[in-house]
Specification:
Shape: globular
Radius of gyration: 16 Å
Number of helices: 5
CATH class: Alpha Beta
Order of helices and strands: HHHHEEEEH
Number of domains: 1
Bound molecules: zinc ion
Distance between the termini: 26 Å
Helix content: 25-40%
Largest sheet: 4 strands, antiparallel
Length: 160
């Protein structure tokens, strides 16, 4: 896998991989991207480690209680960020995470809250935006490149 799953256009090794390997992410956005990429490559230990301490227990219970459904995470689009920089202690990232389920493109849209714990960015919680996925996908032109990074046109790929 050369290109990073987070759709930054950079190599995985120079984008999210260092954070997944345990280096602290400098910004809330970098952590958000690395968490998406960790889901995409199945590195759930990174997801668990970057939960706020108060939430980590929930995650452990969630993953041990049921095996996650087979979902293929295909792409990430950052919609908005607030704070979350190198000088900040809290941050918000709004994103659309695209995945395939039953061979259909789906969107998970969320407004996520991040904060620093012991100096490192962690994920606190998020508000899922349930109303928007249809309108988000509706804005993709039939002749645009597909969001799943296949290199094909949307109408010939996931937009079928
Ligand atoms: Zn990345
Ligand atoms: Zn596609």
């Amino acid at each position: 896998m050369a290109q990073c799953p987070c759709n930054s256009g950079s190599d995985f090794a120079h984008c999210c991989q260092p954070y997944i390997d345990g280096n602290p992410a400098p910004t809330a956005l970098a952590l958000m991207r690395s968490r998406f990429s960790a889901f995409a490559v199945g590195k759930l230990d990174h997801i668990e480690r970057t939960f706020a301490k108060a939430k980590r227990q929930d995650f452990t219970l969630l993953t041990s209680a049921e095996t996650p459904a087979p979902v293929e995470w295909v792409s990430l689009k950052i919609l908005n960020t607030e704070s979350g920089g190198e000088e900040d202690d809290t941050g918000v990232v709004e994103f659309a995470a695209l995945y395939k389920k039953d061979n259909k493109l789906q969107v998970h849209m969320e407004r996520s809250n991040f904060c620093r714990e012991d100096g490192e960015w962690v994920y606190v919680d998020g508000e899922v935006r349930a109303d928007d996925p249809g309108s988000f996908l509706g804005k993709v032109g039939r002749n645009d490149l597909c969001l799943c990074r296949s290199g094909k046109k949307y109408k010939k790929c996931c937009g079928v």
